[in-house]
Amino acid sequence: MNTGMPPGPIVGELNSVGIPAKIVKGSVEIQKKVTILKEGEVFEGDLGLMLSKIGINPIVTGLRLCGTIEDGTRFEPATLDIDYEQFEADLISFGAGAFNLACNISWFTPQTTPTLISKASGEALALALEAAITTADTMPHLVGRANRSAMGIAGSLSADALDEELSQLLGAAASAAASAAVAAPSTDAAPAEAEEEEEEEDEGGFEGLGSLFG
């Protein structure tokens, strides 16, 4: 293949990128057909420059869609240009909305049944506790509530009206509450004491420096 180019550095440049070339009758000629680039491969730098010099330029082929018509309806390119990431996000959002709606109207499906049963169980437990209905599930809650009410009533009575067991229980509860109340201020006081000690140490250090200078 005669490139029509005059002799010069182009011969060495073509050979350096794998294109066999030499000077024949005063012009640069490619000696044989070679495949230096396969379909889909990316090229850059010297190879692209050499291909351009011998008249081989990359082109992009494709179809620019200006619109389509189906059953008398014309679709614009913007309508057909689908953002797949946004489409996926919309599907997830629509699915969540449908699930919430189905749960709100108590629509039983394989997906909503576990949630609806859990919701019904919680509401049934709350109703049973409000009505003081004794079951294996409500008994611990009812006993605890009754115990708290009894302790509250006992706390409002005079000490003479209480038996020894109630007095001990009330005393233990009062001691625990007092300990919790005292623990909070003591933890706050510790940093203040530490700061005072640091200030005293700093003052002592400055006095020591003063004595050095008379």
Q: Descriptors for this entry?
A:
disordered C terminus, two-stranded antiparallel ribbon, elongated, mainly alpha, 214 residues
Word description of this protein:
The chain has 214 residues and is mainly alpha-helical. It has a domain at 10-53. Helix content is 58%, strand content 7%. It has seven helices and four strands. A two-stranded antiparallel ribbon has the order 1-2. It has a two-stranded antiparallel sheet with strand order 3-4. β3 and β4 form a beta hairpin. It starts with 9 loop residues before the first helix and ends with a helix. Residues 201-214 have low confidence and may be disordered.
Number of helices: 7
In percent, how much strand structure appears in the residues? Answer: 5-15%
**Tell me about the biggest sheet?**
2 strands, antiparallel
What is the C-alpha radius of gyration, as a whole number of Å?
45 Å
Order of helices and strands: HEEHEEHHHHH
Based on CA inertia axes, which overall geometry fits?
A: elongated
Topology, number of strands: 4
Q: On the 0-100 scale, what is the average pLDDT?
A: 75
Low-confidence stretches: 201-214
Span from first to last CA?
A: 101 Å
- Helix fraction? 55-70%
The chain-level structural class is: mainly alpha
Main-sheet strand order equals 1-2
- List the quaternary state of the chains: single chain
